[in-house]
Amino acid sequence: MAQIITMPRLSDTMTEGVVATWLKQVGDVVKEGDILAEIETDKATMEFESFHEGTLLHIGIQAGESAPVDSLLAIIGNAGEDISGLLSGNAAPTVEAPQAETTAVATEVTAAVAPQATTLPEGVLVVTMPRLSDTMTDGTVATWLKHVGDQVNEGDILAEIETDKATMEFESFNAGVLLHIGVQEGQTAPVDSVLAILGPAGTDVSAFLNGTPAPAAAAVENVAAAAPTATTVAAQPTTVVAQDQTNNPTGRILASPLAKKIAEDKGINLSQVKGSGENGRIVKQDVENFNPGQAVQTIQSAAPQTAVASAPQVKEEQKAAAAPVKPFVPAGEKFSEEVKNSSMRKVIAKRLSESKFTAPHYYLTIEVHMDGAMDSRKLINAIPDTKVSFNDMVIKACAMALKKHPQVNSQWTEANTILNHHINIGVAVAVEDGLVVPVLNFTDQMSLSQIGSAVKDLAGRARVKKLQPSEMEGSTFTISNLGMFGISEFTSIINQPNSAILSVGAIVEQPVVKNGQIVVGNVMKVTLACDHRTVDGATGAQFLQTLKTYLENPVTMLA
Question: Is 536 a catalytic residue?
Fold first, then answer.
Protein backbone atom coordinates (compact mmCIF):
# COMPACT_ATOMS: atom_id res chain seq x y z
CA MET A 1 0.00 0.00 0.00
CA ALA A 2 1.37 3.41 -0.95
CA GLN A 3 2.53 5.69 1.88
CA ILE A 4 2.40 9.49 1.79
CA ILE A 5 5.55 11.14 3.14
CA THR A 6 5.00 14.69 4.39
CA MET A 7 7.40 17.57 4.98
CA PRO A 8 8.74 16.76 8.48
CA ARG A 9 9.13 19.18 11.36
CA LEU A 10 12.89 18.96 11.99
CA SER A 11 13.14 21.72 14.58
CA ASP A 12 10.89 23.18 17.24
CA THR A 13 10.47 26.45 15.33
CA MET A 14 10.21 25.02 11.82
CA THR A 15 7.07 25.97 9.90
CA GLU A 16 8.31 25.17 6.40
CA GLY A 17 11.29 23.50 4.78
CA VAL A 18 13.29 23.65 1.58
CA VAL A 19 14.38 20.48 -0.22
CA ALA A 20 18.10 21.08 -0.75
CA THR A 21 18.83 17.79 -2.55
CA TRP A 22 16.99 14.61 -3.43
CA LEU A 23 19.16 11.52 -2.84
CA LYS A 24 16.50 9.23 -4.35
CA GLN A 25 14.69 9.64 -7.64
CA VAL A 26 11.31 8.43 -8.89
CA GLY A 27 11.60 4.71 -9.61
CA ASP A 28 14.38 4.09 -7.07
CA VAL A 29 13.97 1.38 -4.46
CA VAL A 30 13.85 2.83 -0.93
CA LYS A 31 14.72 0.79 2.16
CA GLU A 32 13.89 1.65 5.74
CA GLY A 33 16.64 3.97 7.01
CA ASP A 34 17.68 5.22 3.55
CA ILE A 35 18.31 8.95 3.23
CA LEU A 36 15.57 10.36 1.00
CA ALA A 37 16.62 14.00 0.84
CA GLU A 38 18.45 16.84 2.52
CA ILE A 39 16.02 19.38 3.93
CA GLU A 40 16.90 22.94 4.87
CA THR A 41 15.13 24.29 7.95
CA ASP A 42 15.31 27.74 9.49
CA LYS A 43 18.34 26.58 11.47
CA ALA A 44 20.28 23.93 9.59
CA THR A 45 20.32 21.46 6.70
CA MET A 46 19.43 17.95 7.86
CA GLU A 47 19.29 14.53 6.25
CA PHE A 48 15.80 13.03 6.17
CA GLU A 49 15.41 9.28 6.51
CA SER A 50 12.65 7.03 5.29
CA PHE A 51 10.75 4.92 7.79
CA HIS A 52 9.10 2.92 4.99
CA GLU A 53 10.23 0.52 2.27
CA GLY A 54 9.15 0.39 -1.35
CA THR A 55 9.63 2.29 -4.60
CA LEU A 56 9.68 6.08 -4.79
CA LEU A 57 6.57 6.71 -6.90
CA HIS A 58 6.20 10.48 -6.69
CA ILE A 59 8.15 13.57 -5.62
CA GLY A 60 5.89 16.38 -4.46
CA ILE A 61 8.50 19.07 -3.76
CA GLN A 62 11.36 19.52 -6.19
CA ALA A 63 14.92 20.39 -5.14
CA GLY A 64 15.17 24.09 -4.31
CA GLU A 65 11.44 24.45 -3.59
CA SER A 66 9.98 25.23 -0.17
CA ALA A 67 6.73 24.02 1.36
CA PRO A 68 4.97 24.17 4.73
CA VAL A 69 5.33 21.37 7.27
CA ASP A 70 2.92 18.50 6.49
CA SER A 71 2.89 19.24 2.73
CA LEU A 72 3.12 16.26 0.37
CA LEU A 73 6.83 15.51 0.07
CA ALA A 74 6.81 12.11 -1.63
CA ILE A 75 4.89 8.86 -2.08
CA ILE A 76 6.42 5.42 -1.53
CA GLY A 77 4.69 2.21 -2.53
CA ASN A 78 4.90 -0.86 -4.76
CA ALA A 79 6.39 -0.50 -8.23
CA GLY A 80 3.66 0.34 -10.75
CA GLU A 81 1.05 1.03 -8.05
CA ASP A 82 -1.72 3.46 -8.98
CA ILE A 83 -1.40 6.58 -6.79
CA SER A 84 -3.85 8.80 -8.64
CA GLY A 85 -6.27 8.57 -5.73
CA LEU A 86 -3.64 9.82 -3.28
CA LEU A 87 -2.61 12.67 -5.58
CA SER A 88 -6.23 13.76 -6.02
CA GLY A 89 -6.82 13.61 -2.28
CA ASN A 90 -9.42 10.83 -2.31
CA ALA A 91 -7.46 8.42 -0.14
CA ALA A 92 -6.58 8.87 3.51
CA PRO A 93 -2.84 9.38 3.75
CA THR A 94 -0.38 7.78 6.10
CA VAL A 95 2.02 10.33 7.49
CA GLU A 96 5.77 9.84 7.57
CA ALA A 97 7.24 8.99 10.96
CA PRO A 98 8.81 12.31 11.95
CA GLN A 99 5.58 14.26 11.46
CA ALA A 100 2.44 12.59 12.72
CA GLU A 101 -0.94 14.26 12.91
CA THR A 102 -3.80 12.88 14.94
CA THR A 103 -5.90 12.04 11.91
CA ALA A 104 -3.04 10.24 10.24
CA VAL A 105 -2.35 8.25 13.36
CA ALA A 106 -5.97 7.20 13.54
CA THR A 107 -5.79 5.97 9.94
CA GLU A 108 -2.75 3.84 10.64
CA VAL A 109 -4.24 2.59 13.88
CA THR A 110 -7.29 1.31 12.03
CA ALA A 111 -5.19 -0.37 9.36
CA ALA A 112 -2.80 -1.93 11.84
CA VAL A 113 -5.40 -3.27 14.23
CA ALA A 114 -7.76 -4.56 11.54
CA PRO A 115 -6.18 -8.07 11.38
CA GLN A 116 -6.75 -8.40 15.13
CA ALA A 117 -10.36 -7.21 15.05
CA THR A 118 -11.64 -10.54 16.44
CA THR A 119 -9.60 -10.25 19.63
CA LEU A 120 -9.21 -6.49 20.14
CA PRO A 121 -12.33 -4.81 21.60
CA GLU A 122 -13.82 -1.82 19.85
CA GLY A 123 -12.22 1.52 20.72
CA VAL A 124 -9.05 -0.07 22.11
CA LEU A 125 -5.69 1.12 20.78
CA VAL A 126 -2.40 -0.70 21.10
CA VAL A 127 0.62 1.54 21.70
CA THR A 128 3.88 -0.04 20.57
CA MET A 129 7.48 0.64 21.51
CA PRO A 130 8.39 3.57 19.24
CA ARG A 131 11.44 3.80 17.04
CA LEU A 132 12.97 7.03 18.35
CA SER A 133 16.23 6.93 16.41
CA ASP A 134 17.48 5.56 13.12
CA THR A 135 19.55 2.84 14.85
CA MET A 136 17.13 1.94 17.62
CA THR A 137 16.14 -1.73 17.76
CA ASP A 138 14.85 -1.83 21.32
CA GLY A 139 14.09 0.66 24.08
CA THR A 140 14.08 0.78 27.85
CA VAL A 141 11.27 2.38 29.83
CA ALA A 142 12.99 4.76 32.26
CA THR A 143 9.84 6.16 33.89
CA TRP A 144 6.10 5.79 33.49
CA LEU A 145 4.33 9.13 33.93
CA LYS A 146 0.90 7.50 33.65
CA HIS A 147 -0.38 4.45 35.50
CA VAL A 148 -3.05 1.84 34.79
CA GLY A 149 -6.45 3.45 35.27
CA ASP A 150 -5.22 6.99 34.54
CA GLN A 151 -6.98 9.11 31.93
CA VAL A 152 -4.68 9.90 28.99
CA ASN A 153 -5.33 12.92 26.79
CA GLU A 154 -3.89 13.57 23.37
CA GLY A 155 -0.44 15.13 23.84
CA ASP A 156 0.10 13.76 27.38
CA ILE A 157 3.54 12.32 28.13
CA LEU A 158 3.11 8.58 28.70
CA ALA A 159 6.66 7.61 29.60
CA GLU A 160 10.35 8.44 29.29
CA ILE A 161 12.13 5.96 27.04
CA GLU A 162 15.88 5.36 26.81
CA THR A 163 17.28 4.75 23.33
CA ASP A 164 20.82 4.21 22.10
CA LYS A 165 21.12 8.01 21.89
CA ALA A 166 19.23 9.65 24.73
CA THR A 167 16.26 9.54 27.04
CA MET A 168 13.19 10.97 25.30
CA GLU A 169 9.66 11.82 26.35
CA PHE A 170 7.01 9.76 24.59
CA GLU A 171 3.71 11.49 23.82
CA SER A 172 0.31 9.96 23.29
CA PHE A 173 -1.47 10.81 20.06
CA ASN A 174 -4.74 9.33 21.28
CA ALA A 175 -7.06 9.76 24.24
CA GLY A 176 -8.43 7.08 26.56
CA VAL A 177 -7.82 5.25 29.81
CA LEU A 178 -4.51 3.41 30.29
CA LEU A 179 -5.73 -0.19 30.47
CA HIS A 180 -2.44 -2.09 30.38
CA ILE A 181 1.30 -1.48 30.65
CA GLY A 182 3.29 -3.99 28.63
CA VAL A 183 6.84 -2.92 29.54
CA GLN A 184 7.56 -2.08 33.16
CA GLU A 185 10.03 0.55 34.33
CA GLY A 186 13.62 -0.61 33.83
CA GLN A 187 12.60 -3.29 31.34
CA THR A 188 13.77 -3.40 27.72
CA ALA A 189 11.63 -4.42 24.75
CA PRO A 190 12.06 -4.50 20.96
CA VAL A 191 10.64 -1.82 18.71
CA ASP A 192 6.95 -2.53 17.84
CA SER A 193 6.35 -4.71 20.90
CA VAL A 194 3.30 -3.87 23.01
CA LEU A 195 4.13 -0.91 25.24
CA ALA A 196 0.65 -0.06 26.48
CA ILE A 197 -3.05 -0.33 25.66
CA LEU A 198 -5.53 2.56 25.71
CA GLY A 199 -9.30 2.36 25.53
CA PRO A 200 -12.61 3.02 27.26
CA ALA A 201 -12.60 2.61 31.05
CA GLY A 202 -13.38 -0.93 32.21
CA THR A 203 -12.68 -2.61 28.86
CA ASP A 204 -11.45 -6.22 29.21
CA VAL A 205 -8.33 -6.79 27.07
CA SER A 206 -7.29 -10.09 28.65
CA ALA A 207 -8.27 -12.12 25.57
CA PHE A 208 -6.00 -10.04 23.42
CA LEU A 209 -3.11 -10.25 25.89
CA ASN A 210 -3.41 -13.99 26.50
CA GLY A 211 -3.99 -15.35 23.04
CA THR A 212 -2.91 -12.86 20.42
CA PRO A 213 0.68 -12.10 19.44
CA ALA A 214 1.77 -8.47 19.45
CA PRO A 215 0.91 -6.86 16.12
CA ALA A 216 3.86 -5.97 13.93
CA ALA A 217 2.70 -2.42 13.46
CA ALA A 218 -0.14 -2.11 15.96
CA ALA A 219 -1.88 1.19 16.72
CA VAL A 220 1.26 3.09 16.05
CA GLU A 221 1.52 6.03 18.30
CA ASN A 222 5.16 5.81 17.27
CA VAL A 223 4.18 6.76 13.69
CA ALA A 224 5.73 10.13 14.43
CA ALA A 225 8.61 8.50 16.26
CA ALA A 226 6.46 9.54 19.21
CA ALA A 227 7.10 13.15 18.26
CA PRO A 228 9.46 13.77 21.18
CA THR A 229 9.16 17.19 22.74
CA ALA A 230 10.62 20.09 20.77
CA THR A 231 13.82 20.21 22.80
CA THR A 232 14.36 16.46 22.36
CA VAL A 233 13.89 16.62 18.60
CA ALA A 234 16.26 19.55 18.43
CA ALA A 235 18.92 17.65 20.30
CA GLN A 236 18.78 14.56 18.08
CA PRO A 237 19.89 14.99 14.46
CA THR A 238 18.93 12.24 12.06
CA THR A 239 22.43 11.38 10.95
CA VAL A 240 25.88 12.18 12.26
CA VAL A 241 28.06 13.80 9.60
CA ALA A 242 31.80 14.37 9.77
CA GLN A 243 33.07 16.67 7.08
CA ASP A 244 36.74 15.88 7.39
CA GLN A 245 36.27 12.21 6.53
CA THR A 246 34.66 10.50 3.61
CA ASN A 247 33.39 7.09 2.66
CA ASN A 248 31.00 8.04 -0.14
CA PRO A 249 31.06 10.07 -3.36
CA THR A 250 29.52 13.16 -1.75
CA GLY A 251 32.62 13.75 0.35
CA ARG A 252 31.00 12.94 3.70
CA ILE A 253 31.17 10.05 6.08
CA LEU A 254 27.79 8.47 6.86
CA ALA A 255 27.58 6.51 10.08
CA SER A 256 24.85 5.69 12.52
CA PRO A 257 25.22 7.29 15.96
CA LEU A 258 25.67 3.85 17.56
CA ALA A 259 28.39 2.95 15.07
CA LYS A 260 30.14 6.22 15.74
CA LYS A 261 29.98 5.68 19.50
CA ILE A 262 31.41 2.15 19.22
CA ALA A 263 34.17 3.44 16.94
CA GLU A 264 35.02 6.18 19.42
CA ASP A 265 35.17 3.69 22.30
CA LYS A 266 37.44 1.37 20.32
CA GLY A 267 39.59 4.15 18.86
CA ILE A 268 38.64 3.26 15.27
CA ASN A 269 38.97 5.85 12.50
CA LEU A 270 35.66 5.73 10.65
CA SER A 271 37.29 6.88 7.42
CA GLN A 272 38.96 3.43 7.26
CA VAL A 273 35.71 1.51 7.75
CA LYS A 274 33.77 0.34 4.73
CA GLY A 275 30.06 0.78 5.23
CA SER A 276 27.60 -1.91 4.21
CA GLY A 277 24.52 0.26 4.60
CA GLU A 278 22.70 2.49 2.12
CA ASN A 279 25.05 4.82 0.21
CA GLY A 280 28.02 3.38 2.08
CA ARG A 281 26.60 4.18 5.51
CA ILE A 282 28.54 2.59 8.37
CA VAL A 283 26.42 0.54 10.75
CA LYS A 284 27.14 -1.26 14.02
CA GLN A 285 28.20 -4.53 12.36
CA ASP A 286 30.76 -2.76 10.15
CA VAL A 287 32.57 -1.31 13.16
CA GLU A 288 32.45 -4.55 15.14
CA ASN A 289 33.85 -6.54 12.18
CA PHE A 290 36.51 -3.95 11.34
CA ASN A 291 40.10 -5.25 10.93
CA PRO A 292 42.59 -2.34 11.32
CA GLY A 293 45.54 -4.15 9.74
CA GLN A 294 43.64 -5.12 6.60
CA ALA A 295 42.19 -1.63 6.26
CA VAL A 296 45.64 0.01 6.41
CA GLN A 297 46.96 -2.24 3.63
CA THR A 298 43.94 -1.47 1.46
CA ILE A 299 44.27 2.26 1.99
CA GLN A 300 48.03 2.26 1.28
CA SER A 301 47.61 0.34 -1.97
CA ALA A 302 44.68 2.42 -3.17
CA ALA A 303 45.87 5.86 -2.07
CA PRO A 304 48.26 6.69 -4.97
CA GLN A 305 45.72 5.73 -7.62
CA THR A 306 42.92 7.55 -5.87
CA ALA A 307 44.97 10.71 -5.48
CA VAL A 308 45.96 10.77 -9.14
CA ALA A 309 42.45 10.02 -10.35
CA SER A 310 40.72 12.54 -8.11
CA ALA A 311 43.13 15.48 -8.47
CA PRO A 312 41.81 16.74 -11.86
CA GLN A 313 38.23 16.35 -10.67
CA VAL A 314 38.92 18.33 -7.48
CA LYS A 315 40.55 21.12 -9.48
CA GLU A 316 37.59 21.31 -11.84
CA GLU A 317 35.15 21.43 -8.93
CA GLN A 318 37.18 24.19 -7.28
CA LYS A 319 37.19 26.21 -10.49
CA ALA A 320 33.45 25.78 -10.89
CA ALA A 321 32.83 26.87 -7.30
CA ALA A 322 35.13 29.86 -7.64
CA ALA A 323 33.47 31.17 -10.78
CA PRO A 324 29.71 31.58 -10.22
CA VAL A 325 27.72 32.41 -13.32
CA LYS A 326 26.53 36.02 -13.41
CA PRO A 327 23.68 37.23 -15.61
CA PHE A 328 24.62 39.40 -18.57
CA VAL A 329 23.33 42.95 -18.15
CA PRO A 330 23.51 45.15 -21.29
CA ALA A 331 24.80 48.66 -20.62
CA GLY A 332 22.07 51.24 -20.16
CA GLU A 333 19.29 48.72 -19.53
CA LYS A 334 17.36 48.14 -16.32
CA PHE A 335 17.71 44.67 -14.89
CA SER A 336 16.53 42.96 -11.72
CA GLU A 337 16.18 39.40 -10.56
CA GLU A 338 14.16 37.61 -7.90
CA VAL A 339 15.98 35.56 -5.29
CA LYS A 340 13.80 33.12 -3.41
CA ASN A 341 13.72 33.72 0.33
CA SER A 342 15.23 30.86 2.29
CA SER A 343 13.53 29.44 5.37
CA MET A 344 16.17 31.07 7.53
CA ARG A 345 15.62 34.47 5.94
CA LYS A 346 11.85 34.22 6.45
CA VAL A 347 12.26 33.34 10.11
CA ILE A 348 14.74 36.17 10.64
CA ALA A 349 12.31 38.62 9.06
CA LYS A 350 9.41 37.37 11.16
CA ARG A 351 11.19 37.34 14.50
CA LEU A 352 13.00 40.64 14.13
CA SER A 353 9.79 42.33 13.01
CA GLU A 354 8.00 40.94 16.05
CA SER A 355 10.82 42.08 18.32
CA LYS A 356 11.04 45.59 16.87
CA PHE A 357 7.30 46.22 16.99
CA THR A 358 6.50 44.53 20.32
CA ALA A 359 9.48 45.44 22.50
CA PRO A 360 9.99 49.18 23.17
CA HIS A 361 13.67 49.58 22.24
CA TYR A 362 15.97 52.28 23.50
CA TYR A 363 19.73 52.59 23.05
CA LEU A 364 22.67 53.51 25.30
CA THR A 365 26.17 54.10 23.87
CA ILE A 366 29.45 54.34 25.77
CA GLU A 367 33.12 54.68 24.79
CA VAL A 368 35.58 52.18 26.19
CA HIS A 369 39.34 52.85 26.25
CA MET A 370 40.88 49.58 25.10
CA ASP A 371 44.60 50.22 25.75
CA GLY A 372 44.53 48.09 28.91
CA ALA A 373 42.66 45.31 27.12
CA MET A 374 45.17 45.37 24.27
CA ASP A 375 48.10 45.02 26.68
CA SER A 376 46.37 42.21 28.56
CA ARG A 377 45.53 40.36 25.35
CA LYS A 378 49.15 40.58 24.21
CA LEU A 379 50.31 38.99 27.46
CA ILE A 380 47.65 36.24 27.32
CA ASN A 381 48.42 35.32 23.70
CA ALA A 382 52.13 35.04 24.55
CA ILE A 383 51.24 31.82 26.39
CA PRO A 384 51.82 28.80 24.09
CA ASP A 385 48.70 27.36 22.40
CA THR A 386 46.56 30.26 23.63
CA LYS A 387 44.76 32.72 21.41
CA VAL A 388 42.15 35.13 22.74
CA SER A 389 40.33 37.75 20.67
CA PHE A 390 38.87 41.07 21.78
CA ASN A 391 35.44 39.59 21.17
CA ASP A 392 36.22 36.85 23.71
CA MET A 393 37.16 39.52 26.23
CA VAL A 394 33.89 41.38 25.58
CA ILE A 395 31.90 38.15 26.09
CA LYS A 396 33.68 37.43 29.38
CA ALA A 397 33.21 41.02 30.59
CA CYS A 398 29.49 40.91 29.72
CA ALA A 399 29.05 37.66 31.64
CA MET A 400 30.70 39.20 34.69
CA ALA A 401 28.63 42.40 34.41
CA LEU A 402 25.39 40.42 34.06
CA LYS A 403 26.10 38.72 37.40
CA LYS A 404 26.03 42.16 39.01
CA HIS A 405 23.01 43.40 37.04
CA PRO A 406 20.53 40.48 36.75
CA GLN A 407 17.78 42.85 35.57
CA VAL A 408 19.57 43.04 32.20
CA ASN A 409 19.69 39.22 32.12
CA SER A 410 15.90 38.94 32.12
CA GLN A 411 12.86 38.37 29.94
CA TRP A 412 9.34 39.76 29.84
CA THR A 413 6.08 37.88 30.13
CA GLU A 414 2.63 39.38 30.53
CA ALA A 415 2.38 38.12 34.10
CA ASN A 416 5.98 38.25 35.33
CA THR A 417 9.50 39.45 34.68
CA ILE A 418 11.82 36.44 34.71
CA LEU A 419 15.27 37.15 36.20
CA ASN A 420 17.73 34.55 34.91
CA HIS A 421 20.47 33.73 37.41
CA HIS A 422 22.23 31.53 34.87
CA ILE A 423 24.09 33.36 32.11
CA ASN A 424 23.86 31.98 28.56
CA ILE A 425 25.29 34.44 26.05
CA GLY A 426 24.30 34.21 22.40
CA VAL A 427 26.90 35.32 19.85
CA ALA A 428 25.51 36.54 16.52
CA VAL A 429 27.25 34.86 13.56
CA ALA A 430 26.76 35.92 9.95
CA VAL A 431 26.15 33.00 7.57
CA GLU A 432 25.38 32.85 3.86
CA ASP A 433 21.61 33.02 4.24
CA GLY A 434 21.41 35.41 7.18
CA LEU A 435 22.21 35.30 10.86
CA VAL A 436 22.32 32.60 13.53
CA VAL A 437 22.97 32.93 17.24
CA PRO A 438 24.83 29.99 18.81
CA VAL A 439 24.75 30.04 22.60
CA LEU A 440 27.52 29.70 25.19
CA ASN A 441 25.87 28.10 28.19
CA PHE A 442 27.02 29.23 31.66
CA THR A 443 29.39 31.75 30.12
CA ASP A 444 30.33 33.26 33.48
CA GLN A 445 31.89 29.93 34.50
CA MET A 446 34.13 29.78 31.40
CA SER A 447 37.70 31.06 31.12
CA LEU A 448 38.79 33.35 28.29
CA SER A 449 40.50 30.48 26.45
CA GLN A 450 37.40 28.28 26.85
CA ILE A 451 35.23 31.06 25.47
CA GLY A 452 37.63 31.52 22.54
CA SER A 453 37.68 27.84 21.55
CA ALA A 454 33.91 27.48 22.01
CA VAL A 455 33.11 30.53 19.86
CA LYS A 456 35.50 29.37 17.14
CA ASP A 457 33.90 25.91 17.08
CA LEU A 458 30.30 27.17 17.09
CA ALA A 459 30.92 29.88 14.50
CA GLY A 460 32.71 27.45 12.18
CA ARG A 461 29.89 24.92 12.31
CA ALA A 462 27.29 27.67 11.97
CA ARG A 463 28.79 28.79 8.64
CA VAL A 464 28.49 25.28 7.20
CA LYS A 465 25.02 24.71 8.70
CA LYS A 466 26.13 21.96 11.04
CA LEU A 467 24.91 23.50 14.29
CA GLN A 468 22.32 21.53 16.18
CA PRO A 469 19.10 23.42 16.99
CA SER A 470 19.74 22.88 20.72
CA GLU A 471 22.98 24.88 20.37
CA MET A 472 20.99 27.94 19.32
CA GLU A 473 18.44 27.92 22.13
CA GLY A 474 18.29 29.28 25.64
CA SER A 475 20.24 32.55 25.40
CA THR A 476 19.66 35.14 28.13
CA PHE A 477 21.73 37.95 26.53
CA THR A 478 23.14 38.50 23.03
CA ILE A 479 26.28 40.12 21.59
CA SER A 480 26.65 41.32 17.99
CA ASN A 481 30.13 42.39 16.87
CA LEU A 482 30.73 44.17 13.55
CA GLY A 483 34.06 45.66 14.56
CA MET A 484 35.95 43.29 12.28
CA PHE A 485 34.17 44.95 9.33
CA GLY A 486 35.35 48.41 10.34
CA ILE A 487 31.96 49.49 11.72
CA SER A 488 32.62 51.89 14.57
CA GLU A 489 29.07 52.18 15.94
CA PHE A 490 25.68 50.58 15.25
CA THR A 491 22.46 49.43 16.92
CA SER A 492 20.91 45.97 16.94
CA ILE A 493 17.40 44.58 17.30
CA ILE A 494 16.85 42.64 20.52
CA ASN A 495 16.97 38.86 20.15
CA GLN A 496 13.80 37.96 22.06
CA PRO A 497 13.04 36.68 24.62
CA ASN A 498 16.22 38.46 25.78
CA SER A 499 15.83 41.91 27.28
CA ALA A 500 19.03 43.36 25.80
CA ILE A 501 21.64 43.02 23.07
CA LEU A 502 25.10 44.60 22.93
CA SER A 503 26.42 46.01 19.64
CA VAL A 504 30.23 46.09 19.54
CA GLY A 505 32.11 48.40 17.16
CA ALA A 506 35.69 48.52 15.93
CA ILE A 507 38.66 49.67 18.02
CA VAL A 508 39.66 53.03 16.55
CA GLU A 509 42.75 55.18 17.16
CA GLN A 510 41.71 58.71 18.05
CA PRO A 511 42.79 61.66 20.21
CA VAL A 512 41.89 61.24 23.87
CA VAL A 513 42.58 63.32 26.95
CA LYS A 514 44.71 61.68 29.65
CA ASN A 515 45.96 63.59 32.67
CA GLY A 516 45.18 66.85 30.96
CA GLN A 517 47.15 65.91 27.83
CA ILE A 518 45.85 65.02 24.36
CA VAL A 519 47.31 61.68 23.35
CA VAL A 520 46.50 58.92 20.87
CA GLY A 521 44.25 56.29 22.39
CA ASN A 522 42.38 53.16 21.26
CA VAL A 523 38.64 53.60 21.71
CA MET A 524 35.77 51.16 21.13
CA LYS A 525 32.11 52.14 21.15
CA VAL A 526 29.49 49.73 22.42
CA THR A 527 25.73 50.26 22.25
CA LEU A 528 23.25 48.48 24.49
CA ALA A 529 19.72 48.02 23.09
CA CYS A 530 17.26 47.48 25.95
CA ASP A 531 13.65 46.43 26.28
CA HIS A 532 12.13 49.23 28.35
CA ARG A 533 9.54 46.83 29.78
CA THR A 534 12.23 45.09 31.84
CA VAL A 535 15.34 47.32 31.80
CA ASP A 536 15.10 50.93 32.88
CA GLY A 537 17.54 53.53 31.60
CA ALA A 538 19.48 53.79 34.86
CA THR A 539 19.83 49.98 35.04
CA GLY A 540 21.19 49.81 31.50
CA ALA A 541 23.61 52.68 32.21
CA GLN A 542 24.92 50.99 35.36
CA PHE A 543 25.48 47.77 33.41
CA LEU A 544 27.54 49.66 30.80
CA GLN A 545 29.59 51.34 33.53
CA THR A 546 30.43 47.94 35.01
CA LEU A 547 31.25 46.55 31.56
CA LYS A 548 33.52 49.55 30.87
CA THR A 549 35.41 48.96 34.12
CA TYR A 550 36.04 45.30 33.29
CA LEU A 551 37.22 46.02 29.74
CA GLU A 552 39.45 48.96 30.63
CA ASN A 553 40.99 47.01 33.54
CA PRO A 554 40.76 43.29 32.64
CA VAL A 555 42.48 42.27 35.87
CA THR A 556 39.32 43.31 37.73
CA MET A 557 37.52 40.33 36.16
CA LEU A 558 39.62 38.14 38.47
CA ALA A 559 38.30 39.84 41.61
Answer: yes
